[in-house]
Structure formats: C-alpha cells, structure tokens
Amino acid sequence: MKKPNIALTIAGTDPTGGAGIMADLKSFQASGVYGMAVATSIVSQNTLGVQDVYHLPVEVIESQLKSVFDDEAPHAIKTGMIASEDMMNVIKPFIEQSGKPYVIDPVMVAKSGDSLMDDKGKRKLQEILLPKATVVTPNIPEAEDITGFKIQTEEEIKKAGDFFLNEIGSKGVVIKGGHLEGDAIDYLFTNNGMRTWTSERFSTKHTHGTGCTFSAVITAELAKGHAIEEAVEVAKRFITLAIKHTPEIGKGRGPVNHFAYQKIEGLDYE
Ligand SMILES: Nc1ncnc2c1ncn2[C@@H]1O[C@H](COP(=O)(O)OP(=O)(O)O)[C@@H](O)[C@H]1O
Ligand SMILES: Cc1ncc(COP(=O)(O)O)c(N)n1
Q1: Would you say 263 and 30 are in contact if contact means Cβ atoms under 8 Å apart?
Q2: What's this model's pTM, rounded to 2 decimal places?
Q3: What 3-state class would DSSP assign to 170?
Q4: Is the CB of 142 within 6 Å of ligand 2?
C-alpha cells in the first residue's frame, strides 16, 4: 500500500467527540489522510457547554511536538484551540521548521459562548501565528475580534480579507458566513483574489464543531498537495453534508456527521 499523506492537528479536546482534536482526527480519516494529534488543553465539554478547562503545561505540548517531528513529519498542520501566548511561542518554531502548509482555525469561543482563549492570547495571535498561515478560517466574530471592526456587509468582509492578507501577512483567509443570515456563504481571499462558496442554510442547532471540521478538511486536502482553492471547495462540500446529516447526539447543540461526505461522495482511498 502507498504511504499515506499525513495531517497533524494541534488543539484542545472534546471528550464527546464533536469538536477539537477528536473532530479533526475523524475529519482527517474521512478525507483519506493519516491523522496525528497534539493536545494543548483538556476541555471537559459536551453538547450542552464547557464544564471545565485544563491547559497543559507548555513543556508537555513541546514534548508531544518533539515526539511527532523526531519521528515522521506531517504534510500539513492545523492549529485550533491555542489558549495562551506561551503556547503560541512553543508551537511557532515547529511550524516554521516544517515548511509545510499551515491552517489556523482561530478558535476563541465555543458555540456555547464559553471562552477558549485568554485576552492576551487573542491579541498575540496576530503577531505570533497568523503571519505564518497558509489559510486562516475565522468565523465572523473571530474576524471582527482580529481586525477590530464590525463585519456585516460584503464590503466589510472584503475589507477583512484585505486586512488578513496585507496587514497581518497570512497567505489566505476564509471568512466563514455561518454566523450571518441567509445562505451559508464562505469567502476565500488569496493573491488570486476573492472566491465564494454558497450552500443552503440548514435550520439546525447541531453545529458543534463545524469550524473544527471545516478547517481539518482543508488541512487534509493541503496534505494531499492540493491548492488552497481546491481544498476549500472540498471542505465546503464536506461540511455541508456533515451538517445536513447530523447524527442527533447529545441533549444540546450536537455534533456534525463526519462520515456523511465519505458515504455520499464515495471517497476512494489510495
Ligand atoms: N446552518 C448552517 N447551514 C449550512 N452551513 C453552515 C451552517 N452553519 C455553518 N455552516 C458552514 O459551516 C462552516 C463553519 O462555519 P461557522 O459555523 O461559521 O464556523 P465556527 O464553527 O467557527 O463558528 C462554514 O462552511 C459555514 O458556511
Ligand atoms: C477544543 C475545542 N476546540 C474548538 C471548539 C469550537 O468548536 P466550533 O467548531 O463549534 O467553533 C470547541 N468547542 N472545543
């Protein structure tokens, strides 16, 4: 069998499997990519909310990263929940030395409204990690937090795209329209300009982990060597089917179906 492409996620956990590194690993697997995972914070959470958070000591995050990179380097890397500046500083050199595509999901708040990053971390993200990104995938509130201005209209979305590319120095940014009204439109900005993907908006409360899943699929597609545009195209199809066929798990805001895309689009493993 051909050696698989490998994707690494560096993020927080969700013991109920809907978000964080658990969702990322499922999404990697369903994309036909071998998944690796480094935990940053252990989050006691479920579909009802976040009950507790334990941030791992930075030495433990560093030693996990060493374990990965001393053995087999991934073809693409994603970071999700990175709660503090210290964590960012430990992760940054591994990203730089890898020279591989790097996706940042700038996770700040869980769908339940619980904060997953401290205030200083929020400010430092754009200094330490965002300039290294191949693609950043903020939702609207995250894009507002990072740019410092309100985003409601398409003009403001374009202004935000410009801010990520030209003020921060990210190579690409997808501003996700999950939090707006009407169709679910995602806006990609790169050197090639703007591209949008539109899907119908499903009227469901089961969107726990949509952002994690979307960015993990982009990472998996980049690990296969695909271009940013192709990666976002696949991720949009994947997340749309995952939301359409939610498995109705839990008492609250449930997870998406990480296996719907593979089942419906019949992915062939190499
Ligand atoms: N109700 C919905 N129906 C269809 N697509 C959605 C819905 N909610 C979110 N999406 C899509 O899911 C992906 C994640 O978006 P979003 O929910 O905004 O991210 P986050 O989880 O970071 O808040 C995007 O592609 C977005 O368009
Ligand atoms: C560990 C962790 N990371 C991220 C999220 C956000 O999830 P969403 O994709 O719903 O914004 C979460 N709830 N937990």
Answers
A1: no
A2: 0.97
A3: coil
A4: no
CA 155 and chain centroid, separation: 24
**Residue 207 designated active-site:** yes
Output the pLDDT for position 180. Answer: 81
* Residue 269 within a domain: no
pLDDT given for residue 181 in this prediction: 83
Domain containing 117 — which CATH number? Answer: 3.40.1190.20
Is the residue at 253 inside a domain?
yes
- Mark whether 16 is an active-site residue: no
Residue 63 pLDDT grade (very low, low, confident, very high; cuts 50, 70, 90):
very high
Question: Do residues 164 and 189 lie in contact, with contact meaning Cβ atoms separated by under 8 Å?
Answer: yes
Q: Which residues does a 6 A CB cutoff place in the pocket of ligand 1?
A: 139, 176-179, 184, 186, 199, 201-202, 204, 207, 210-211, 214, 236, 239-240, 243
Residue 1 lies in a domain: no
**Catalytic annotation on 210?**
yes
Query: 199: burial class by Cβ within 10 Å (0-12, 13-18, 19+)?
Result: middle
Q: Which of 46, 212, 217, 219 is the best mutation target for the ligand 2 pocket, counting ligand atoms within 8 Å of the beta carbon and taking the most?
A: 212
How many folded domains does the chain comprise?
1
Query: Per the residue annotation, which of 9, 40, 207, 219 is the catalytic one?
Result: 207
ipTM above 0.90, yes or no: yes
Could you tell me if residue 268 is inside a domain? no
**Which residues, other chains included, contact 123 with Cβ-Cβ below 8 Å and sequence gap of 6+?**
none
Q: Which domain holds residue 77?
A: 6-261
